[in-house]
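Inputs:
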Amino acid sequence: MRIYVILLTFLLLVSAFVAPGRAEVTAVKAGRILTISGEPITDGVILIEDGKIAEIGTGIEIPEDATVIDAGKSVVMPGLVDASAAAPVRGDLNEQSSEITPTFRISDALDPQSKALKRVVQTGVTTLFVSPGLQNVIGGMGVVVKPTGKIPQQMIVKDEAALRIVMDLDSTQGNRIPRREPAINFYYRRPGTRMAIIWMLRKSFFDARQQADSGQTEDPNLAVLSAALKDEIPIHVNARRAIVIRAALKVADEYGLKLILQECTEGYKVAGQLAERKIPVVLGPFYYYPGNTGQYREGRKVNWNNAGILAEAGVKVALSSGGQSGAIDILTAATFAVRHGMDRDEALKAITITPAEILGVADRVGSLEKGKDADIVILSGDPLNVTTRVEKVILNGKTVYQQTSGETS
Amino acid sequence: MKSRSHITFVSILLIVFMANSIAYAAPVRKKLAVEAGRIITIAGKDIKNGVILIEDGTIKAVGTDVEIPWDAFVIEAKDKVVMPGFVMAHTSDGLDRANENMPEVPFISTFDSIDPISTFFEDSLRDGVVAMLVLPGNNTLLGGTGTIVKPYGRTVEAMLIKRYAGLKISLQPSQNTSRMGHMQRFRRYVSDLKDYLEEYEQRKADAEEEKKPFDEDIDVTKQSMVDLLNKKLTAFIYCDRAADVPKAIEIQKTTELNTVLVLGPDCYKAADLIAKSKLPVVLDSELIIWETNEQTNEEEMKVIPMIFHKAGVKFAFQTDTSQYGRRYLWYQAATAVKYGMKREEALKSITLYPAQFIGVDNRLGSIETGKEATMIFLTGDPLDAQSWVDQVMIAGEIVYEKAKDERLKKLLEPPLVMQEPKDTD
């Protein structure tokens, strides 16, 4: 009897301590859940605990104290991942003092109050990769963030996520040799040609390798580059035209670099090579009219089905906004990719799990699976339909966007 | 000898007969019957499994119980959606240059500047557009007159629907002028024009009184503005910002012009004012804009077609080529439907309404008896991104077939020869 009393008191005490400490549970009920990692679930439930997915499937018992979000007949899918987003940064993205700035980190300049972030979350994007601008040959390191948090540290999913290299002519933009002053000038910037871009790249990696071989690590710039050489930091290379992509492959071969290609407008021309080398690509929005490509926008020879051809050849394809704030949202980008010939499932993966894998954050985001972050988008219908809209966005288990009737008036 | 002449006679007869039959098998068939899976008539309810009867390029009958005459050529489209082709009420694409650099050039015409080879027209046809009013750009006060064309034909003459239609007035101040100066320039032009007309009438009256012949024509540089005042032309007034709207309404009231407003995205703030004026509107191609709420510092999305739709304004969509979605009129309509606009109304905004605004609704804009047989055959619902325009018919003639669109194939298929070096070194 006494032992029972002791046990009972103990149990009561335990429950008294446990109950208030228990994490808040949210349950999302939906007619259709596109998990991306597996088959779609009909009439399923997602249990969210502590910002993570605790349970997903059918016939899951919803705890009594859980907050229930009933999505009704809406379609639920994982939060979208934009592998090349407009940077939520105030001020310029391009460092003008030097062309090679591998140590620079965009995470130092993040602005959690950025307008771009508040907008992007309403299009269903919950994870973004942002990096320094395109006017440096080696611009620095990008960061994977979520559009949430009051201070930059709360936004960051993965810092120093990739080194940004630009092989397109953007890095020559505005550069010229000053004719009057002596060429040694703070504002004197190279390169001026594609030859120079590739030369600077080669030189940088050559120096980094030499420094690594000598055992001295004096120059922090070279330290970052040798980390990239050792495959510790992934390399994102901007290359639009086929000749630039081929040049990138050549440099990669020389130094044993593992690349991820950004933009890749003419990727369809080298699809076989990219597939063979298992080089993933992050495509930007494509343009058809030469007049709108801008002076430095290359890749005029566009194939509308670039994404489809690359995916068909076996290349890992992610669809992104190409770092442009005015670009069409990536859900619509996927819709048009399917219109032009990409496989439906591939297109959905190209805005969720594939970019997550490319960015090395697939253990946290990109699909709806037990243990992953509770980043969920609720859509009014089929995701690949122009008339479908984003109804609700849940980020780390919290509703960060809710469609209101007010916004349309 | 006799039999030989017989043979010659018969062969001549045969040749004549064959030549005749060739002449009658011209591309435009006299009688056509379209058997469609679904007809979106725009004029009324959708028709399932209907028939459209066409004679001499004009629709003779539409319905489910239409009898197909024995001599009609039947176009089978039972797996297709047939609807009137899209109409663009305002565009400055397809021009060599859209803006003259002088502010008052009402006498120039886009007719002289349209480039039939421009990919814009080719794309428009591929996307189901059958008529468009090409007007000068938005940078010129009195920009010139427009031309209504179909995006089909090798010369502007072949494309022509109407040679002289619409006059562009832009209230957006051009370089180095203020809004004050811009408006004043307009008022002065109109008052000078009225003085000129008065003097002209006076001279005419004087000549009549003196019984002298009067053969003075109206100054050609002023003719189009005179036609505008006489309502022979419609004014397409471009408002860049909401502040331009009241001025456009003032111009419309004081000069009593037939007016269509062409709006910039900012003009949604004047939606109520526009609704009150009952003027027709061509919306900007940018349908969704973002604004920062100054009180809450929240980012707010403004869905422009919904704001005008709720205010009760009748509008048409237009396209631009800066983004791949905005290139399509159907995409514009679908975006509006996404945010709650009624489907029927959205479809009218890309067919019947623009046809009304540019004055071709007697021929185009809906599938009705008596209208021109101009329609598009779609592989699915018009607002579905996975649907394609399969065929375009203009006045009873099939002018576009997706299956024969070689350029589209090139845009979608991998390059034929992928020459890849085995080794990059």
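Residues 199 and 257 of chain B are 22 Å apart (CA to CA). Flag for discussion at group meeting.
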